[in-house]
Structures are given as structure tokens and as C-alpha cells.
Backbone:
């Protein structure tokens, strides 16, 4: 995960309808230039996720990310190991190379307009690399919390968040283009960064399935086959 082009990925596609302006004046349609377009779903950064995802009762997702190699992905590019690997590819500074940054920084290729003020690229591979841009998700959850004192698990609509990122997101960066890539078992690698909400009811079998590969300890199946389980 700390290889030169090793980490990657994408809380939080949206309930934009809750924020869409609805035209009620006769003759005005949502396509009318007079009607403001809905705000973009921007990247907000992992520090913004901390507000709702750091409590022990909710799973301490922020702390788990902060302790992960993903959070150190940008800093890793300044190590001697990274510089040596970069030099072999005629890259002078890994922390300034698009070839490296595309997988060591969240939203690297995004238009700056899609990044909320305060977003910090140097925070490495953040939550939104795997879960998608989080601005609208945060708005919807904060609005819901203001209207309800419910403390239990709340099911998030599928169109609001990428709750369980698939292996294809990992493989956007964990692939042969990485100088230190090795084929991996998706389930085993995923078990290292699991950050589930303990309030969601899961059977013992479901929990076991999330943490163990059905191929056994040897795990000869590697990437694609593991993703099907």
C-alpha cells in the first residue's frame, strides 16, 4: 500500500433531490436559466468525515483511516525508497509527479472547483478515494441528525454512498503499473482496513465472510476471483 503508485480508490454519492430548487412559478422549468443549478457534489476531505465517523459507538472509522497506510500515501513519496523507485523511471520528485500523485492523492485529477475550500491533498488517499465525493452526503446526514435524535444504525440509500467499494476501485491503482505491485487477495487486503459500523446488525457468518477468504490461507485466487465472493 505504500508503493510508488500503490494506493487508490473513491463517503457518498447523493440525495441531491433534497437540495434541488423546485420551480413552482408557471412557465418556469428546472431547465430554465433562471433556476439555479444544483450544487456539485464536491470532495470535502477526511477531516470533515471525522465529525460523524470518529465515535467508538459508530466504529471509529476516522481513526482507522488515520492509522492506515492510505493516510500516509503522500508522505510516503518523500521516502528514500520512493525516490529510488522514481529515479529508475526518470522521475525527479515523486511528490510532484502526476504519475505518482494520481494514486497517492485523493481527487488528483479533479477540477479544483470540485474540491471544497479546506480540502487537503497532502492528506493522502482519503475516505473519498474509495467512497466518492462526500459533500452532499454530509449535508443530508447533518440535516437528518438535526431533525432526529435517533442514535441507532441508519440505513444509507444506495445512491448516497459507495458503502462497500468493489475490488475494481482498488485495482485502479493496485495494478501492474505500480513498481512494487504484487497480486493480492482482495478479501485479505480489505480485512486490514475494515471499518464497519458496529450498530448494523450482522450475522456471525457475514462477519466471517468479510474477514476471511474462502480460498483458505494460501489464497491462490488473487484479485478477480476474490472479488466475486
Residues:
Amino acid at each position: 500500500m505504500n508503493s510508488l503508485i500503490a494506493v487508490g480508490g473513491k463517503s457518498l454519492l447523493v440525495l441531491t433531490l433534497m437540495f434541488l430548487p423546485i420551480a413552482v412559478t408557471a412557465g418556469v422549468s428546472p431547465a430554465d436559466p433562471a433556476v439555479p443549478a444544483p450544487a456539485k457534489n464536491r470532495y470535502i476531505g477526511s477531516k470533515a468525515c471525522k465529525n460523524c465517523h470518529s465515535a467508538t459507538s459508530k466504529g471509529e472509522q476516522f481513526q482507522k483511516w488515520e492509522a492506515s497506510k492510505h493516510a500516509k500515501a503522500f508522505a510516503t513519496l518523500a521516502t528514500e525508497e520512493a525516490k529510488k523507485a522514481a529515479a529508475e523511471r526518470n522521475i525527479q520528485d515523486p511528490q510532484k509527479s502526476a504519475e505518482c500523485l494520481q494514486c497517492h492523492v485523493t481527487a488528483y485529477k479533479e477540477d479544483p472547483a470540485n474540491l471544497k475550500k479546506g480540502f487537503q491533498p497532502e492528506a493522502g488517499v482519503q475516505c473519498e478515494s474509495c467512497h466518492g465525493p462526500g459533500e452532499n452526503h454530509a449535508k443530508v446526514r447533518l440535516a437528518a441528525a438535526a431533525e432526529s435524535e435517533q442514535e441507532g444504525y441508519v440505513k444509507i440509500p444506495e445512491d448516497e454512498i459507495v458503502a462497500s467499494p468493489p475490488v475494481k476501485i482498488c485495482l485502479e491503482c493496485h495494478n501492474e503499473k505500480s513498481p512494487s505491485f504484487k497480486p493480492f487477495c482482495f478479501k485479505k487486503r480489505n480485512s486490514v482496513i475494515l471499518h464497519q459500523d458496529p450498530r448494523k446488525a450482522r450475522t456471525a457468518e457475514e462477519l466471517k465472510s468479510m474477514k476471511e477468504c474462502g480460498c483458505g490461507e494460501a489464497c491462490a485466487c488473487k484479485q478477480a476471483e476474490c472479488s466475486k465472493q
